[in-house]
Amino acid sequence: MEAAPRLPGMEVRPVERHVYEVQIGPAHPGSGHMRIFVEVDGDIMVRVDPDIGFVHRTMEKLAEGRDWIKNIPLFERMAILDACNITLPYVEAVEKILDIDPPPRAKYLRTLLCEINRIASHLYGMGIFGVFLGHSTLYMWAFGDREVFVQLAEDLTGARLTHSYPVFGGVRRDIPDDFPQNARKAARYMRNRLNEYAKIFLNNPNIRKRLEGVGVLDKNRATELGIVGPNVRASGIKYDVRLVEPYEAYDELDFEIPIFEEGDSLARAWVRVEEIRQSLNIIEQAVDWLERHPREGFMHDRFWKNAPQLYKDIYNGKIDYAGKYRVKLMPLFASLKVPAGKASARVEAGRGEMFYYVESDGKNVPYRVRVVSPSFRNVIAFKYVMPGHRLMDLPAIYGSFDYFPPEWDR
Amino acid sequence: MSSAPEKKPNAPAPQAPTPAPKPAAQPAAQSAAKQSAVPAAPPKPTIPPEYQELQKKVAEVLKGLNPTFEPSRGYLDVVVAKEHLVEAARRLKEMGFDHVISVGAIDYIAKKQFKVMYHLTSYLNEDLSKYVVALSTYIERDSPHVPSLTGIWLSAEFHEREEYEMFGIIFDGHPDLRPLLLTPAVAALRPLRKDFVVKEESDDIETDYEAYLATKWW
């Protein structure tokens, strides 16, 4: 058996004649910690074993010991740049058990933040994807443009990343007065930028050479593996929770679900760009709706009744909205007990379908919360899609699935 | 943008938030808000209305396996006996439920039972996409064995590995049953079982690298 070659930053071990094992990670040059064991024959990957769990934070266990409301800030630590989408199904599931339905304005506000988050999440993913392929320009552009949407989210919620915006029965606050014009400006800006992204990245011959025909997942294989989100829509499957089981305000909005047939890494990148375009449309529609309708009812009456007077004054415009007072949580949340029951909910998060199963036995903490994040369902693809490709294709496939370790480790 | 105005205005006045069932005449005192939580809404132990049609179909497909339907919200909970799990899974897959969203387990420590749930939906059959069906079964807590369904739904592979390490449930016939997220020393504690108590933070969780390496290929 030959001596193992030395590679910078990787540990290599001979397995059998001509087959070596390369460990990629856990300190990853991209973002977040995960390790992949790859057995290579020459530079063809013959066996891939994703070894995850380096940022596992025991969320399901922690959730069983915390008040219902305190779980929202916990769960959004899974994917802070997609915080609204990640916590929304938990909120919806608890609302189902409580048997309350948020008012329409709250639904639109949630939808608005979901789409802002989706764009921010896609831009983040594309930036990482770019730097994986040695394309630093896209990295800089995407992260710079993401700032626009992070700023919008801050205007809306008061926090850049961990918004904790959707709460049981509604949302935490209404839009500020100058929000609609900023949102429209951002949408205009981003539409132009997307064309430039296509020029410098997606239609760039260098990048296309790396991505086209790499990591191909056909329709049946994607179904079998249960891949989610933009990745499955790049394989020609018409599945989007916003479409199949509309939640919040999505059944009243007008948008398209981009679907590509190729199923390769390039298609997965294109789906994200097209989704950003659709999200911009949704943001504009939601903002139009919010402007047309009076500012009332962003919280369900059951919780609103006990709100402090200051809260109501701010909300009715008697006190300046963005003044020195901050909107806090409803008093009832602190002692919320959820009746016994079980519910599940799913939404389409930035990276795919986010699923929660919530069971209550009538106490002030959940009995069981099962969290399934989109990246956790995508990670199986590494094991089954990568073998047969060259080692050089690993970052192209890895990045194209929009991996996010904190999310799949939970 | 141009398409927005033609949308129904969705007049807020008529369907403004209807006050939910009134919390039985609470004294308006501050203390009431403090200690009383939202009064339990009248429990509705039913199958969700949008699922009733599907329930008939599923009952038809699973005829002979004695499926029972537990009340739930947002999905259809189908419980079969452990012996019938594989057969039920095969029939549901033929019916069109082609992938697994989640494999979850719950520890009912008082009843000495685990419940294992396979939440399913469909990609290729667009009529079924809007439904989530949970195929579930109860198993003994003392001998937690359940047949693996990875052979039927490959998408269950990593989920079953996770439930194995968190609960110690053995999925018989799983091709590659190793801990996924945890180290073996932590997985041996069965952290998601209800009798595992979370200790205060300390740095000396023992890490047994020998055992850890034994789970790898070499």
List keywords for this structure.
heterodimer; A: 410 residues; alpha+beta; Cytochrome-c3 Hydrogenase, chain B; four-stranded antiparallel β-sheet; three-stranded antiparallel β-sheet; 17 helices; 9 strands; globular; B: 218 residues; alpha/beta; Beta Polymerase, domain 2; two-stranded parallel ribbon; 6 helices; 7 strands; 18% strand; disordered N terminus
Task: State the CATH superfamily name of chain A.
Answer: Cytochrome-c3 Hydrogenase, chain B
Integer count of domains of chain B:
1
Estimated structural class of chain A: alpha+beta
Could you name the CATH topology of chain A?
A: Cytochrome-c3 Hydrogenase, chain B
Kindly report the average pLDDT value of chain A.
84
Query: What's the number of structural domains of chain A?
Result: 1
The CATH architecture of chain A can be named as Orthogonal Bundle
What is the rounded Rg of chain A?
Answer: 22 Å
Label the structural class of chain B: alpha/beta
Strand order across the largest sheet of chain B: 1-2-5-4-3
CATH topology of chain B: Beta Polymerase, domain 2
Explained architecture:
The complex is a heterodimer of chains A (410) and B (218). With 410 residues, chain A is α+β, with helices and mostly antiparallel strands. Chain A has helices at residues 59-63, 71-75, 83-98, 104-132, 136-157, 179-202, 205-211, 219-225, 230-233, 241-244, 265-292, 301-304, 309-316, 374-378, 380-385, 394-400, 405-409, and strands at 11-16, 19-24, 35-41, 44-51, 166-167, 170-171, 341-349, 352-360, 368-372. Chain A has a single domain (58-385), classed as Orthogonal Bundle (Cytochrome-c3 Hydrogenase, chain B), CATH 1.10.645.10. In chain A, the strands form 3 sheets. Chain A has a 4-stranded antiparallel sheet. In chain A, 54% of the residues are buried. In chain B, the strands form 2 sheets. In chain B, strands 1-2-5-4-3 form a 5-stranded mixed sheet. A two-stranded parallel sheet of chain B has the order 6-7. By secondary structure, chain B is α/β, with parallel strands linked by helices. Chain B has one domain (49-214): NADH:ubiquinone oxidoreductase Nqo5 subunit (Beta Polymerase, domain 2), CATH 3.30.460. The radius of gyration of chain B is 23 Å and the shape is elongated. Chain B has helices at residues 30-35, 52-61, 85-95, 157-167, 184-187, 209-214, and strands at residues 68-70, 76-79, 99-108, 113-121, 133-140, 145-147, 170-172. Chain B contains 6 helices and 7 strands. Classes of the chains: A alpha+beta (410), B alpha/beta (218). Chains A and B meet through helix 1, helix 3, helix 8, helix 11 and helix 12 of A and helix 1, strand 3 and helix 4 of B.
